[in-house]
Each structure stands twice: as C-alpha cells, then as structure tokens.
Design a protein that fits this description.
Elements: H1 19-40, E1 62-66, E2 72-74, E3 77-79, H2 81-92, E4 100-104, H3 110-123, E5 128-130
Parallel strand pairs: 1-4, 4-5
Antiparallel strand pairs: 1-2, 2-3
Helix pairs in contact: 2-3
C-alpha cells in the first residue's frame, strides 16, 4: 500500500479503505454467533408410541337437495315435508353427527331452503354446508 503525501498532487492515491469491509464481517460474525447455538441445541424428546386405530368412524354425509319446484330430497330420495322433521331429528341424535350438505336449485324460492335450514337447526344439527358449482 502506498501512502500519498500532500506535496505530490500529481500522484494517484492507491489506498483501499478497509473499514466498511471489517464492519460487514463483524456484523456477519455476530449473526452467526447468535444463530449457531440455536440451531445446534435442539431439545431431544422421546415421543410416546400410539396405535394406529380409528377412534371413531365419521358418519356418511347427508345429501339434502331442493329442486326447482321446492321438493325435498334426502340422499336422492324424495321426502315429504312431514317426514323431514323426523329424519333431521334422527340424524341429530347420531353420535357423531353427520354433516348436512344442502344443494338448492338456483330457481327454487329462498323460503324453501330457509325452512329446511330452520328445521335442521331446530332438530339440533350443528354441521350444515351449502354445495355450489364453481364458476367457469
């Protein structure tokens, strides 16, 4: 390294400033000092063994449909309005409860779907979902 003097103004100063490089290296060193112990000192735990058995079978979902005329269908079988409360109560008493998947025709009156939902809620069904078609 050459150190220039103030007397010779024609000479180029060829000195490299090392301070920014040292600062960067010190910051990287501090980061590695902090992160390496965290990576290496993981807690070793012996997990207990469990059997691979089903504890409870999930019941089959109920496919409940309302066609354009307002008729109810329970798993593709037509159901009268008077029978609906009994079917919903029987489904609500199952343990675990099945899910009620409602498929309503887009031309059906909202009132028919709302009545079915109110009857399901009154019977005690907690899992109700709507099935729709995805938009193209």
């Amino acid at each position: 390294m050459a150190i220039g003097t103030q007397d010779s103004s024609d000479e180029v100063m060829a000195e490299i400033n090392m301070i920014p490089f040292i600062d960067v290296m010190l910051v990287l060193l501090i980061i590695f000092i902090i992160t390496v112990p965290v990576i290496q000192h993981a807690v070793n735990i012996d997990l207990p063994q469990a059997s691979i058995e089903k504890v409870q079978d999930k019941p089959e979902n109920i496919r409940f449909s309302v066609d354009a005329d307002g008729h109810y269908f329970w798993n593709e079988q037509r159901v009268a309005d008077a029978e609906l409360d009994g079917l919903l109560s029987a489904a609500a008493s199952q343990n675990p409860q099945p899910e009620l998947h409602i498929r309503g025709d887009k031309a059906v009156r909202y009132e028919r779907v709302a009545l079915a939902m109110a009857a399901a809620r009154k019977a005690g069904l907690r899992k109700i979902g709507f099935i729709t078609e995805p938009t193209p």
